[in-house]
Amino acid sequence: MAIFNKIGSFARSVSDKTGDKLEISKLKAQIRSNHDDIEELKLQLGDYIWTKFDSGVIMDEKATEICMAIRQSELDSAACRQEIAAIRAAQESARYQADMEAEARSEMRAQSAELFNEVRTFAASSNRPFSACPLCGAPVSNDSRFCGDCGTRLY
User: Fold this and answer.
1) Is the overall model pTM greater than 0.70, yes or no?
2) Which residues of 61-78 are buried (b: 16+ CB within 10 A; e: fewer)?
3) Reduced to 3 states, what is the DSSP secondary structure of residue 146?
4) Which residues of the chain are modeled with pLDDT < 70?
5) CA–CA dist 119, 109 (Å, integer)
6) What is the DSSP letter of 59?
7) Dihedral sign, Cα of residue 141, residue 143, residue 148, residue 150
8) What's the pLDDT tens digit per position in 65-105?
9) I want to staple 150 with a disulfide (CB 3.0 to 4.6 A). Which of 19, 67, 128, 136 is the partner?
């Protein structure tokens, strides 16, 4: 019988400890909930005071000091946003300029190749051993791969 009393006593002890831990967990959850409520109320109070300040109501010195710091931070943020916009505009302008330059280079290459082909066709039809560089106009032999004057690749 003593063994059953010890088992029963142990079970009650475990049950009591479990109940205590459960109660402590519930109380801690209530404390966290209260803390969250307090933080939300502080935010609401701050919004209320800011609205009053922003509408021109005269506040005490500390509240005015804090509100002026907020106002300065807003101005600093606005300046940062303007700087970001300027950087993005410069990037967009640089991309546009690079695209235009690439397009111009591509067009010049196409025109150069077309002119070179015309010169080569003319040279081949006239049985001349030389033609002209499409970029600088210097005479080049028909079997040359690059212009000897300007270095342009000959097609």
Assistant:
1) no
2) eeeeeebeeeeeeeeeee
3) strand
4) 1, 4-8, 10-11, 14, 122-130, 155
5) 15
6) -
7) positive
8) 999 999 999 999 999 999 999 999 999 999 999 999 999 99
9) 136
Distance CA 36, CA 39 (A): 5
Please count the other Cβ atoms lying within 10 Å of the Cβ belonging to residue 114. 12
At 26, list the tokens.
């519930």
Q: Using the CB atoms, write b or e for 125-135: b if 16+ within 10 Å.
A: eeeeeebbbbb
pLDDT score recorded for residue 85: 93
Q: Residue 76, SS3?
A: helix
Category of 86 on φ-ψ map: left (φ > 0), alpha (ψ -120 to 50) or beta: alpha
CB atoms within 10 A of CB 123: 18
pLDDT of residue 79: 94
For 93, half-sphere exposure in the C-beta direction (CA atoms, 13 angstrom radius) is 6
Q: What is the pLDDT of residue 23?
A: 87
Q: Rounded distance, CA 147 to CA 136, Å?
A: 9
- HSE at residue 54, side-chain half, CA atoms within 13 A, is 10
Return the structure tokens found at 75: 């101005």
